[in-house]
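Discussion board: Methods & Data

I've been asked by a reviewer to show the raw model output for two of the constructs in my manuscript, not just the figures. I'm not sure how much to include, so I'm pasting the format here to get opinions. Each protein appears as its amino acid sequence followed by a line of discrete structure tokens. Is this the kind of thing reviewers expect to see in a supplement, or should I convert it first? Here is construct A:
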Amino acid sequence: MEKHSVSRLIGAPPGYVGHDEGGQLTESVRRKPYSVILLDEVEKAHQDVFNVLLQVFDDGRLTDGQGRTVDFTNVVVIMTSNLPGDPADFFRPEFINRIDDIVRFHELTRENMAPIVEMQLEAVRHRLDDRGIELDVSTEAINKLADLGYDPAFGARPLKRTIQREIVDRLAMILLSRPVEDDSVAEVDVVDGQLEVRVRVPAHQV
């Protein structure tokens, strides 16, 4: 976030382009004083932006480019950061001291993946339920999806694409190739080290 971003937050001063428009931050809070503000990757902000935030945290108000005082006392500010170490080593002490709480998230490990796989599969399960098809995924298949969908650098981000490629796309091909009646079961298992997807028809159809 560059230095000129301050003008975008609180509005341009008199005589500058955009003075009549108000700032994105101050105008939003002025119109909706009960708000939650999310500042993503706040460590990338210019120092002048931190000075603005200090005023919000300290005084609970900001003066916009038009001279209006905007009340921030009913605003919750949430900031995210990708700093690898202690935030106190990066941010100024007066900034850290005005933060109510800091929540640290540890990196995902391979051991964390199985519950995430099951949560992602719930979306697939609901879609199949709408067609009267049950989804049955073995424990071995869940572990295989966890292996394929985990990346040490990106955590679980590749998992959604993995489930799309390994399960959803394969099921789509099966469902397009032949009619499948209600009460069929889509089974996902591991055979010879590879994921296998098949649709088993109920006994009355056999």
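Construct B, same format:
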Amino acid sequence: MTKIKTAAAVPGKSGNPVALFKMLLAAGALLLVGGAVWYVAITGIVGLKDWDYVKYGLAPTIAAALGGAILILDIAAYFFLPCFKEASAPLKHDLKQDKIRYLLILPGIVLVSIFNYIPMYGIVLAFKDYKIKSGILFSEWCGLENFTRFFGRSVAGNVILNTLFIGVTQLIITFPVPIILALLLNELRSKKFRSAIQSTIYLPHFVSWIIMYSLLFSLFSVTSGMVNKLLMSMGLSSINLLSDPDMFYGMLYGTSIWKEAGWGTIIYMAAITGVDEEMYEAAYLDGANRFQRCLYITLPSIAFVVTTMLILNVGSVMGANFDQIMNLRTDATKNTVAQVIDTYVYDMGVEKGQYDLATAIGLFQQGVNCILLFISNFVVKKLSGEGFF
């Protein structure tokens, strides 16, 4: 007698319980997130004065509630229905076997949720006319007014362009340095000497930016700096390095390399140690010199790590190093070459108390960073075949 396969037994078909579970899981998540975003967006656009819950808020609420219900029922079905018994067995086994590890992870998940995800509610400030007395919840919605306020200011264009300029040039100048350092360290034959060099170049990372600026001030201050005192004792004129706008970018790139290049070599050194030594030996026997072994073995072997770091760095081009720039800027540079989005957000939010405007600017910045992350991943994946996701 011929056995007939049921749809549930055929992997990949619509009748497959696991495939159905995944489809419902995706649909539930999409409805939940989409409904929440829809609700926030429509309330921001319509505004509190013209708000009608039945007309504007009911549909996204139903969508989000439906999505949440689908997620809960779908996950419950996965663990308790007989048709998922075989599929959920490995997960149940893992949960039972590694329950101590999952319990150890739980505090981290709770902390991340409390300090990273729950504060995201503050994003709604970007769409509100925030009043301290009313608070975030009861302040009136103002739609996209905060965004138009920012883009309508004459300083907006200069701030955005300066942020992009610093981000792109700093990426081009500083990104290759840790890779080159890691390749050079890998060529050192003495392990003790290599360890000593590594420890030395790691140390600046642990120096805070305020301490770093104190070192610069003690060296290059016009009145009391060691360098300027030496120049004046030789009959030469002093240099105003810290307050000269023309020197700001060079000082920015130089301090970035000095402080972070050594620390950045860690991930590349870890990748290099995973390269098979037999490949180097075979290349040596074939007559390849050190440079050729580095070029044709080491670099291709760590290409995935390099592309991953490049994608992550491109995704933060609009996020210039706030701590660094805040400490390096002076009265002569704070409104010109040292004015970037992060410092402008600080000026508007912390100094002037315009929290709604500062939130809108920050949201715009992170939106651009997110777009750049996806674009860089797409381009790198097309060119090299390897991407971050």
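Answer (T.O., handling editor elsewhere):
This is acceptable in a supplement if you add a one-line summary per construct. For B, something like: The two ends are 48 Å apart (CA to CA).
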